[in-house]
Design brief:
The chain is α+β, with helices and mostly antiparallel strands. It has 19 helices and 34 strands.
Length: 715
């Protein structure tokens, strides 16, 4: 063999060896398919998107088992619920009357790219995404046609490309501007459809999106895409995701555990999304375009889910973005005309879903952790949302008789069996949810008292702190459950705590049974322990929940409570009001049970497979539980500067903090068996309780935990 060939061969072997030995980067562990088949309701979606960016897509199908694609994705306008436009591929020469279902195979998805073969292998598709634009490379040996459909709007053209608009909801519109590198053989405009015909080979297509105008969509495209280099866009997307996911680095654990961790972390960046475009944003709160003044505007944040752990996670790792998000909430309140803080802000406005007004919790949590918040404005908008808007679930109506009764008596009155609903603000399907609303509003009142105290208004602080303690009004001392009461103050008779109150338990609770809402007092855990009869009784009742069967066959239980899945006894890992519950043992002197339960939930219900996410993953609401718990911490009560210590999955986790410092958790000997903490030191000093303050973490340092397969049980 000639020396040149030997040298070339050795070089090739060296490159291959280096590639094989190269450590995986964080983005390589992300499996967007994890959870794509649901246990009961909505699956996770394999989202392609840059972190918190406006342009999101996922395959146009119901879930992983979908036999056909409805088309190639263009933009998701509302997390997991609505997409706009349709890009269809056709090899035929017949008439095009509507988007055609596409057979597909060999699909591959990363957080920043998508590839698939269509039409029994005849068409190859590659896709890469930027913040407000994306690029396709579509290859076919045969002539092909691309059709861009507006599913509720119009398309048109200028000298450079194709544009379109589509109404998302009410007066909110999304716009697209599309260009191809190759000239089309033919171009046809049909009102809501543009058809481009090509002679075969590769078609390089790029597009921009906007919520302002198609001209702005074009500007977004030209700002972000300087050419048609899909490889460059993909490399930049990979770089951004690696940079983002590297805010938390982990060592140890299995490959599957790292995949579950980084996939969960990736899902926390699906929302909210930044709507600012060249310093302007569309606001559905007043149907106007605004200057953002250099502070990005964010929306699409289902706060009932995300206040619990997704917002606190961002407080640690990206406080600047969290401040911008909270500023966006205040803009929404101002632009709405009511002054009410939002509860479920979306691109198309506030859908006011679920119950309670937990935006006040995001404000309170930021304030106690030292973030920059306009406290007077946060206090005013939160107070208005609590007292002027009705507390009735899924409603944006003004306060009604239901609300007046609550503020006078401390609870939402339940209807007796057979008693008709008379308050027009109550949703026919969602009902009153009296226990859930009473407990959730008590917590909101406590959060409001924090804002009032920070604003120097001690009178208002004491008033709402008093309101926050009225959760006990619904505590039934005989059963030690929170129990619905009628307007006369009598407990509703015959409530089955396992199987209560109609579809979704909405007549009394919400989506979960009484066992879950038994622990929904995040703001006064010592008071709840006292109501339960002290530490031993409290822990015994927690134990009993995990051991109590559903009481009816699963098919019957889930037909009535489809959100209450991923059960261990009557505990449900699949719904957000349960997320803090495994950590409650810490507060009652039995932290080893928290350690056991947290590991049990992670290994049982969060797995690297198609059904590896329980319940509805609401854009980081549940996945942030996995991120925190895998590191070994959890913010049980947003609004307090404290974190409970659990059981780290990894031997080492390093968190890059917003202030440039690092916090490390070292769990010596951590494994599936060694889940129990037998000693804990923070910066070399022994801890006497299983909690850390926010100051402990944000100051930087190291928490060292010695792990064992046997619990350290306190005397």
């Amino acid at each position: 063999m000639k020396p040149q060939r030997i040298l070339a061969l050795c070089t090739a072997i060296s490159i291959l060896a280096a590639s094989c030995c190269r450590d995986k980067e964080p983005v390589d562990y992300v499996n967007p398919y994890m959870g794509n088949i649901s246990h009961m309701l909505v699956p996770t979606f394999p989202t392609v998107q840059l972190p918190n960016s406006m342009l999101r897509v996922y395959p146009d199908r119901g879930d992983f088992t979908g036999e056909y694609l409805g088309g190639l994705p263009v933009v998701v306008t509302n997390h997991r619920e609505r997409s706009a436009f349709n890009l269809s591929v056709d090899l035929g020469s017949g008439p095009i009357l509507a988007p055609k279902p596409l057979s597909y195979d060999n699909e591959r998805i990363t957080p920043y790219s998508y590839s698939v073969t269509l039409l029994d292998g005849a068409v190859d598709v590659r896709y890469a995404v930027s913040h407000q634009s994306a690029i396709y490379k579509i290859t076919s040996a045969e002539p092909l046609r691309l059709s861009l459909w507006s599913l509720g709007g119009q398309v048109g053209e200028d000298s450079d490309g194709i544009y379109g608009s589509q109404t998302v909801l009410d007066s909110t519109k999304v716009y697209v501007y599309l260009q191809t590198q190759e000239a089309s053989v033919a171009r046809e405009m049909r009102g809501n459809c543009a058809i481009l015909s090509f002679g075969g080979g590769a078609v390089n297509l790029r597009y921009g999106v906007s919520f302002i105008s198609w001209e702005q969509a074009k500007a977004n495209l030209l700002r972000e895409q300087k050419g048609y280099d899909i490889d460059a866009v993909e490399r930049e997307g990979r770089r951004i995701w690696n940079q983002t996911l590297s805010r938390i680095k982990v060592k140890g654990g299995s490959e599957d555990e790292k995949t579950v961790f980084y996939t969960s972390y990736y899902r926390t960046f699906e929302r909210p999304i930044c709507l600012s475009e060249d310093g302007r944003y569309w606001s559905a709160w007043d149907n106007s375009v605004h200057e953002d003044g250099g502070t990005p505007f964010y929306t699409d944040d289902w706060i009932w889910d995300t206040y619990r752990a997704a917002h606190p996670l961002r407080v640690l790792t990206d406080a600047g973005m969290e401040e911008d998000i909270l500023s966006s909430f205040l803009r929404m309140a101002s632009e709405s005309g009511t002054g009410w803080a939002p509860t479920f802000p979306e691109v198309s406005g506030d859908s006011r879903r679920m119950n309670s007004n937990h935006t006040v919790a995001t404000f309170a949590d930021a304030v106690v952790k030292g973030l920059k918040v306009d406290i007077p404005a946060a206090l005013e908008s939160s107070c208005k949302a609590l007292t002027e808007k009705t507390l009735a679930p899924w409603s944006g109506a003004p306060a009604s008789d239901l609300d007046r009764f609550f503020w006078e008596n401390g609870y939402v009155a339940a209807l007796r069996p057979g008693e008709p609903e008379t308050d027009p603000v109550v949703n026919d399907f969602e009902k009153r949810q009296p226990v859930a609303v009473t407990l959730g509003t008590a917590y909101d009142c406590w959060c409001l008292s924090i804002l009032a105290r920070a604003a120097g208004n001690s009178v208002l602080a004491e008033q709402f702190e008093g309101y926050s303690r009225r959760y006990a009004t619904l505590f039934n001392p005989q059963t030690r459950f929170f129990h619905p009461k009628d307007k006369e103050g009598n407990f509703i008779p015959g409530v089955d705590y396992n199987f209560p109150g109609g579809l979704g338990a909405r007549e009394y609770y919400d989506e979960n049974n009484a066992w879950v809402y038994r622990w929904d007092v995040q703001h006064d855990i010592p008071g709840l322990i006292e109501l339960m009869g002290g530490n031993e009784a409290f822990c015994a009742e927690l134990d009993r929940m995990f051991a109590t069967p559903l009481g009816v066959p699963k098919y019957l239980f889930y037909s009535k409570l489809p959100d209450h899945t991923a059960n261990v006894g009557c505990f449900s890992m699949a719904n957000e009001p349960s997320l803090h519950v495994p950590y409650l043992y810490n507060y009652a002197g039995q932290p080893w049970k928290t350690q056991k339960r947290v590991r049990q939930m992670l290994s049982t219900w969060f797995r690297n497979d198609l059904m590896g996410v329980p319940g509805d993953e609401d854009g980081g609401g549940m996945s942030s539980f996995v991120v925190f718990s895998s590191v070994g911490l959890y913010p049980v009560t947003p609004g307090t500067a404290e974190y409970a210590i659990g059981s780290p999955v990894f031997e080492k986790a390093t968190v890059e903090l917003s202030n440039g410092k690092q916090f490390r958790v070292i769990a010596r000997g951590a494994s599936a068996e060694n889940k129990y903490v037998v000693s804990a030191k923070l910066n070399g000093k022994a801890l006497d309780r299983m909690f850390l303050s926010h100051e402990d973490i944000i100051s930087g340092g190291t928490l060292v935990l010695e792990m064992s397969d046997k619990p350290l049980i306190a005397d």
